[in-house]
Amino acid sequence: MRMIGMIGGMSWESTAEYYRLANELVRERRGGFHSARVVLTSVDFADVERLQMAGDWEAAGELLAVEARRLSAAGADLVVLCTNTMHKVADVVAAAIDVPFLHLADTTADAVREAGVRRVGLLGTRFTMEQAFYRDRLADHGLEVLVPDEAGRDVVHRVIYDELVHGVVRPESRAAYVAVMAGLVERGAEGIVLGCTEIELLVGAADTTVPVFPTTRLHVEAAVAAALGE
């Protein structure tokens, strides 16, 4: 079994899901006492959030590149960045290491295409919904990407930063997300990409009428498959 390197802490709430899912998936596939071989580095999210808000993506990229090099030095055979938003600096992170880097948007797009879906609604932070780095990566796979309107983007972003990254899950926020997803479906979305690793703490497949693509789970599934040589 190859060693999975995880760059986490953005936030640790969702990184805990990465670790849990990786171990559950290995146990399902290998059985017995098997668990995932993981080396994890977890950053202080306050440092990353400060750079996000300042728009200093160059410094943020170098911060995460340092962590990637640490994982490689610790024996990681492949690396995953446990956050959607910080894939804005994915190229910098990938260039810092000589082992494979599994891009979250690529694993998501593969699952969307396999499901026969071509037009998706995207939920995430404002950075993910409004900037080109993530939408264009999905579009490179032949997907059409819809995002919520201004009010919807406000709600989705606020709930992530004010609640989910702090481990707060509120029924009224779930209802607000359900309404935003319904709006995307009305506009023609054939599926919904949960493009923030914390969103899976709040909503899932039961909350909309179209297929849901949980990026955290899809990313971990790809990492485990690579680790097991599948």
UniProtKB/TrEMBL annotation:
<dbReference type="GO" id="GO:0047689">
    <property type="term" value="F:aspartate racemase activity"/>
</dbReference>
<keyword id="KW-0413">Isomerase</keyword>
<comment type="similarity">
    <text>Belongs to the aspartate/glutamate racemases family.</text>
</comment>
<protein>
    <submittedName>
        <fullName>Aspartate racemase</fullName>
        <ecNumber>5.1.1.13</ecNumber>
    </submittedName>
</protein>
<dbReference type="Pfam" id="PF01177">
    <property type="entry name" value="Asp_Glu_race"/>
</dbReference>
<dbReference type="InterPro" id="IPR015942">
    <property type="entry name" value="Asp/Glu/hydantoin_racemase"/>
</dbReference>
<dbReference type="InterPro" id="IPR001920">
    <property type="entry name" value="Asp/Glu_race"/>
</dbReference>
<dbReference type="InterPro" id="IPR004380">
    <property type="entry name" value="Asp_race"/>
</dbReference>
<dbReference type="InterPro" id="IPR018187">
    <property type="entry name" value="Asp/Glu_racemase_AS_1"/>
</dbReference>
